[in-house]
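DATA SHEET
Item: assembly model
Revision: 1
Owner: S.N.
Input lines:
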Amino acid sequence: MQHFDTIIIGGGHNGLVCANYLGKAGQKVLLIEASKKLGGLAATREFYPGFRASVAHAINQFPEKIVLDLNLTKFGYKQSSRSMKNIGLDLEGNHVFVTQDGLSGVSDKEVRQYDLYIASLKRFAKALQPFWMKKMPAISGNTIAEILTFIQIGLKLKLLGKKDMRELLRVVSLPARDLMDENFDSDLLKATLSWDALVGSTQAPRSPNNSILTLLYRMAGNHHGHYMLPEGGVQSLIDALTDAAKSVGVEIRCDSPVKKISIKADKNGVKAEGVILDGGEEIRGDRVISALDPKQTFINLVGAEHLEIEFLNRINRLRTDGYVAKLHLALSDIPSFTGIETLDDRFIIAPTMDTIEFAWDDAKYGQCPENPVIEIVIPSLNNPALSPEGGHVLSANIMYIPYRKKGGWSEESKAHLVKKLLNTLNQYSPGLSEKVIHAELLTPVDLEKDWRVTGGHWHHTELALDQMLMMRPTYEAAQYQTPVDDLYICGAGCHPGGGLMGAAGFNAAKVILT
Amino acid sequence: MTTDIKFADERLKLSPFHDRQAALNLRDSWSVWNGYKFAEYYYDSEYEYFCVRNTCGTYDICPMQKYLIEGDAAEAMLNRMVTRDITKLKENRVTYVCWCTNEGRMIDDGTIFKLGPKKFMLTCGSPSLAWLRKANFGFDAVEIKDVTDTLAALSFQGPTTFSVLKEMGLEGIEDLKPFQIGYYDFAGTELMISRTGFTGDLGYELWIENDNALELWDTLYEIGENYGIQPYGEAATNMARLEAGFIMPYMEFNEALKTVHYQHDQTPFELNLGWLVDFNKPLFNGRKALLLDKKNGPKYTLTKLDIEGNKPAEGSYIYGDKKCSLEIGYVTSAMWSPAVKANIAMAMIKTEHLHGEIWAEIYYEKELRQYDKVARCSIKEKPFWAPTRARMTPPEHY
């Protein structure tokens, strides 16, 4: 039987990042992936002959530190210095353009107000920056390191100054709607700016909780929340992480679903000692790290008999229902949007905050929205390899598409939704339908089934205040260790969360190595 | 139930034995247990206590909660929940168990009956379905069924019980060992009997479907007449169980899921139930916390006390010196024990003071005048009352 220092389950970007750091530190690491390709939701795959796309279609917060530590540029990862604009599409062509330098397409008053608004958000994002790449202290923790982190959090906030600290504490839990209404007049601008506070969550503009905190989390990257596509697309990040991992001796096995984490249970308690694959093969390791979502990890792979009652029930009650569907269009020609010249940006179809709110209202009662709200990227512009010559790929995130659709999902209901989406898209991009060779819709149920992520949730576990920081996924597992000895977690369900960031994988590796 | 009765939903449930018990409840002294009308005593609690110790008595345990837990993972599910290793429990055997929160605080105690390879019955004092469902999450194909309202149960305790059952013609009852379960033909149906009880004496618990409950009662009382049979209530039970050293909820312990204040509940080690905690088991709820509790030592330990004099130390503070300057604990239950002829009590005493002097400050009343005295206490390791007849198989015939 093979024996490794560390076995990592799940070859998404967090698993890869974690494997890299452990491999670099000299550990003998095995990375196991259930599907045929590494990358998880960031993996690029063919969805129609000749046309390829990844579920995660752009990058906004992948840390510079990981790029440097792992020497990813050497392995072919070339970040783009050009960040994508966020463009709020208007039917009449009066679009709103949000760039890293400011706004255009709105009144001068709004432009000036945006400068003030974004400056303060940047200060807040900067204050929070140190905590994403850091293990959170346990609430009951009283080690010096944990106390220092608490002090650091307090100090960082304090250093913002009285005015900013008050403002940060006020806005982190503010509904997006309130913050936008306070600052801006244009409906389209408000909807466009709130998009990144809401996408991927069960929150709409009027929902209280933490949408602004989510926005600040997304602003952690180099481009302050703006997305970019590296040369070679999202896949180039996965390829670089894979090659870097191989270069430090990480062994990689794809197409090997794990059935169970094997647990040694004796009078010393329970500890992980390896994995059992679907086929029955057993592999041993000194420790096991799961990059899968917490429900998969604990409920399915560990099992109730090895975990205490309250812990498992807390895992079970995590909110993990996804509300974003993915639409991939294989196009025969480049699409055009009324009044748009360059297409390698990020387009948002959400004319008003009410449109977003009503879409959520439909979804929360299990219906597909009457008027879906959509985020569009055309990744084939950046990476021609994604489509045959002349063709293009349109990749869109659709909110809010319920995991628990009333009556369930069927081919028929999917086709119905695709038709509705194409109708909407056509209004902004006349003639688009005629260019569509094939449309692939991935509902949260499809994402769950084919990407093996509970609820089809991007973030494995909803990014909400009660499921963040030292509460993510829940206490007793929020420091990457788990109640099972030698079992760690490093996926998006850990602090800080999802998005193509890799911080969970980084933090977990650090815990293991120190 | 008819709905034209006023406040129908608010009325107490009546046990299947109620008609007979009501006729014998000369003092109309009723109490409540889990929504059932339930006798505090029938005639006189001391008289009933003496029947339990000298002849025999019946105690209605219909209100006790009974859950059937069945399925492939039933054993694994229960074994994770309770602190004891029930994989060692044989079929047709009963074991005493307790279960804790993940903080190691005791939720309740009760008994597990192994009725078949994949079939168990859990009994306990308070409704526990919500906790059982939580404990069952993650286990497939385990069915939990609350049979409290359909399975009648009567505790039948005292030295002459065996003779009554024998005379009823229950074949093989003489072979039933303590904590064993047997099945007997009775009135064309099956009567389940376990040799268990809450009195520390020879005794049985009889389990039968509600429909046959009264027939069982009538037969017991017909034959039992010559053996001094008498129904007894909560008051006599409380005396008998204290002599036997058994703990009672809301006296010795608080159910952990119901306490408001941190650590106003107890760990099994505090309750001197460390023998129920099996650390050889790789995992059970509260294991990590209890390992720590065991290592650090419980702050308090439930202790059996023999107290000088004859004044029951009810509600007394316990001190480490006769001058009562060092408070070290409090009494949870106390009585003058007629069977042992001793002034007995159970008390929570700070563990660090267990080896020093122990004094109880006892307040008592005599014809409206208040008195107090300080009495020396000595620790008893064994139950106050544990007659050999309780364990004999076959039991003595009267």
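QC remark: The longest strand of chain B covers residues 369-380.
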